[in-house]
Amino acid sequence: MKLRALAHSRTGDKGNTSNIALIAYDMADYGHLEAHVTARRVQEHFREIVTGEVVRYALPKIGALNFVMTGALGGGVTRSLALDAHGKGLGSALLDLDIPDRT
């Protein structure tokens, strides 16, 4: 299943660092997200874009995971030639990640 079936995202950026908050639509799905959307999976998903570290922060009380990705914006908004230099599209790209179906 696609991640977008269970969650939505919000993004932010500062310099060459992007963060993506992944928020479960239903708190009952948070454990499934936590088990299958790891920093390693996110790093692999963005392997052609993110040149630095990916760190995951768990926010279980609000059913969210936050991923901070360094080296994600081609040098930052004022240095990148990317069409989406702010990284807003990265949230949508993360939602395209395949995860196992809920059991």
Characterise this structure:
- It is globular, with a radius of gyration of 13 Å.
- Strands 1-2-4-3 form a four-stranded antiparallel β-sheet.
- The chain is built from three helices and four strands.
- The chain is of the alpha+beta class and 103 residues long.
- The protein has helices at residues 30-36, 39-45, 88-94; strands at residues 7-14, 17-24, 54-59, 64-70.
Topology:
Blueprint lengths: L6 E8 L2 E8 L5 H7 L2 H7 L8 E6 L4 E7 L17 H7 L9
Antiparallel strand pairs: 1-2, 2-4, 3-4
Q: State mean pLDDT (0 to 100 scale).
A: 87
Main β-sheet, spatial strand arrangement: 1-2-4-3
Oligomer: single chain
Our count of helices gives 3
- Series of secondary-structure elements, N-terminal to C-terminal: EEHHEEH
**How many beta-strand segments?**
4
Give the structural class.
alpha+beta
Give the N-to-C terminal Cα separation.
12 Å
Q: Give the helix proportion (percent range).
A: 10-25%
Share in β-strands: 25-35%
Largest beta-sheet characterization: 4 strands, antiparallel
Radius of gyration: 13 Å
The backbone outline, from C-alpha atoms, is globular
- Ranges with pLDDT <50 over ≥5 residues? none
